[in-house]
Amino acid sequence: xxxxxxxxxxxxxxxxxxxxxxxxxxxxxxxxxxxxxxxxxxxxxxxxxxxxxxxxxxxxxxxxxxxxxxxxxxxxxxxxxxxxxxxxxxxxxxxxxxxxxxxxxxxxxxxxxxxxxxxxxxxxxxxxxxxxx
Length: 133
What we know:
This protein is of the alpha+beta class. The protein has one domain (about 1-105): Nuclear Transport Factor 2, Chain: A (Roll). About 30% of the residues lie in helices and about 40% in strands. It has four helices and six strands. The protein has helices at about 1-5, 35-50, 105-110, 115-130; strands spanning about 20-25, 30-35, 50-65, 65-75, 80-90, 100-105. The longest helix is centred in the N-terminal third of the chain and has 14 residues, at about 35-50.
């Protein structure tokens, strides 16, 4: 499955049901969907909105029916390269298919701070809330 993520293309999305249970849930900072078709739609939307998306798995830990992976998500948007660092909690059913895929990443730090109009107030807020050095 990790190889599938790291080589994901619009064409390979057709293999999603090999890895996800029919009623699987996917949640990230922007989406909360159930079912293989809805999860596939999230990934298809990714391919439509960003250029050259690629996941690189950095670490993977598995314990019974659960796994946690850390990853980098690299893509281009409006001619700029973007890197998002995050992690995914995966839970598997009895057949070894993903029944829960929960992504954890800081949308403010990894994405919003890099947008000029949003970045300034977020950076200001971080400075105000940070413990003094």
